[in-house]
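Tutorial, part two.
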Amino acid sequence: MSVVAGSQRRVGVFGGAFDPPHTAHSALVMAALEQLQLDELRVVPTGEAWHKNRSLTPAVHRLEMVRLAFARLDRVVVDPREIRRNGPSYTVDTLAELRDEIPIDKLFLIIGEDQAAALTTWHRWREIPDFATICVAARAGIAGARGTFDALSGGFVPFQPIELPPMDVSATDIRERLANRQSVAPLVFEPVARYIAHHHLYQTA
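Running the prediction step on this input gives:
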């Protein structure tokens, strides 16, 4: 997506392992586009995940699944920078790069409640509000997200909630279903399901 010189934009950043991408990810992206009035939303698959206790599916597969999952959504750009970056993927570096690369009026970092709860463990987390407004998905209701986030951040980091309907979907559950040869049709979009089946992803020996 090209950016006109001198223009100013409201840009969102939504990062994650996307292992695999699922319908709750899409719901959050659509809610962020509408509620934050974004001109563009960058979906950024994690490269080397320093904070994960398990090995991720190879980046080539996760990147292609993300492209398939979000291909139908306008104003969404799949950004592979963290996969292409050598070494661990740090959100603060991605935000700094975007600020330097394109004209942005406002930058928004979109995270789930689980990511918000772990924010204080992130690399240089106190610098993140210098680059972007932190927006937390409130799947259980805005008050619940605010209480969780404030309790763990000490209330020193301002944030904006994104309201979502309750959705009982998780990548962990999807991987377990696939490992047990169970259907995941309601939880991932058909192109992603076909890709997973074609490449035999998440299957045990």
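The chain has one domain: 10-168. In part three we will examine how such features are distributed along the chain.
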